[in-house]
Design a protein that fits this description.
Layout (H helix, E strand, L loop, with lengths): L1 E4 L2 E4 L11 E12 L4 E7 L4 E5 L2 E5 L3 H15 L5 E6 L4 H6 L7 E6 L2 H10 L1 H4 L7 E5 L2 H6 L5 E7 L13 H10 E10 L7 H12 L4 E8 L7 E8 L15 H6 L7 H7 L4 H8 L1
Parallel strand pairs: 7-8, 7-10, 8-9, 10-11
Antiparallel strand pairs: 1-2, 2-3, 3-4, 4-5, 5-6, 11-13, 12-13
Helix pairs in contact: 6-7
The protein binds S-adenosylmethionine.
Length: 289
């Protein structure tokens, strides 16, 4: 259930985040429809700019999306010494594609998104993110990421799963069998990175997903970024590498500050990469010990 009342949108999801909700003051409901897969809303908010909401859950806002998009892209890309071919699953707003194409070693980006309406509406109302689709390196396929993965073997260096939350069409992308499919779709030494919730409310779920990753990848870890419009103000990523010698916490490729600025990265840096893997003690204990 989501509510726009007295000019405020509230993200009320009792199953996912019981007893709490984040609210944004809305200037205008710019667009609203039910696609084949989900309820889609585009809101113009007073302080977070344009906002994409799917099935009542905030996906991205213009004000803070760069933190999420940069981190889900550059954490795995910089863990890989030569990320030439990348697959993005989900990511219908285009923000992850916009970031991935910035990496100087990336030659090809394939993206599979289930809902063409999210892509079309993002092109119309969220052009600062959807510009990612305009880059010549990006080839977009409309389809289910889980099914797509079954037909691709030994092909990608990095797979980024920028999915919605584990309800609706994205449920399969959080299952352990998805990690097995991704493993098969990767080239040797490949890396995966998926959005993975917040430790304040989803710790059991994070552990389950991380264990799914651990069972198929030589190295796995949980990393964090800060996103004020997500529940509890931050979100994590489950990252796995097929390379048993990989040290995920230390980037394989380190950009200088000048390079970071030239790439127009506002959140990611080598220090932020290292710090993203530092977890509160109780989380570290629960996930790793
Ligand atoms: N940054 C966002 C977040 O974590 O809240 C995710 C943004 S992106 C809009 C999520 C996309 O995943 C949506 O456009 C949705 O249609 C897509 N998606 C959900 N399930 C999918 C599936 N099985 N295969 C491909 N795309 C999927």
């Amino acid at each position: 259930m989501d509510v726009i009342r007295n000019g405020w949108f509230s993200e009320i999801q009792e199953d996912l985040w019981p007893g709490q909700s984040f609210s944004l003051k809305v200037k205008k409901v710019v667009h609203e429809e039910k696609s084949k897969y989900q309820d889609i809303k585009i809101l113009e908010t007073e302080t977070f700019g344009m906002c994409l909401v799917l099935d009542g859950i905030i996906q991205c806002t213009q004000r803070d999306e760069f933190s999420y998009q940069e981190m889900i892209s550059f954490l795995p890309l910089c863990c890989h010494p030569n990320p030439r071919k990348v697959l993005i699953v989900g990511g219908g707003d285009g923000g992850v594609a916009r970031e991935v194409v910035k990496h100087p070693l990336v030659e090809e980006v394939h993206q599979v998104e289930i809902d063409d309406r999210v892509v079309e509406l993002s092109k119309k109302y969220l052009p600062s993110m959807a510009c990612g689709f305009e880059n010549k390196k990006v080839k977009l396929t409309i389809g289910d990421g889980f099914e797509y993965m079954k037909n691709h073997k030994n092909e990608f260096d990095v797979i980024i799963t920028d999915s919605s939350d584990p309800v609706g069409p994205a449920v399969s992308l959080f299952q352990e069998s998805y990690y097995e499919l991704m493993k098969n779709a990767l080239r040797p030494g490949g890396i995966v990175c998926s959005q993975g919730g917040t430790y304040w409310t989803d710790l059991e779920y994070i552990k389950k997903t991380l264990n799914g990753c651990k069972n198929h990848f030589a190295k796995s870890a949980f990393a964090l970024t800060s996103v004020p419009s997500y529940p509890c103000g931050h979100i994590g990523f489950v990252i796995g590498s097929l390379d048993e010698n990989a040290n995920l916490k230390e980037p394989a490729i380190k950009f200088t500050t000048g390079e970071i600025d030239n790439l127009n990265l506002r959140y990611y840096s080598t220090d932020v990469h290292r710090g993203a893997f530092a977890l509160p003690r109780y989380v570290e204990k629960f996930l790793y010990e």
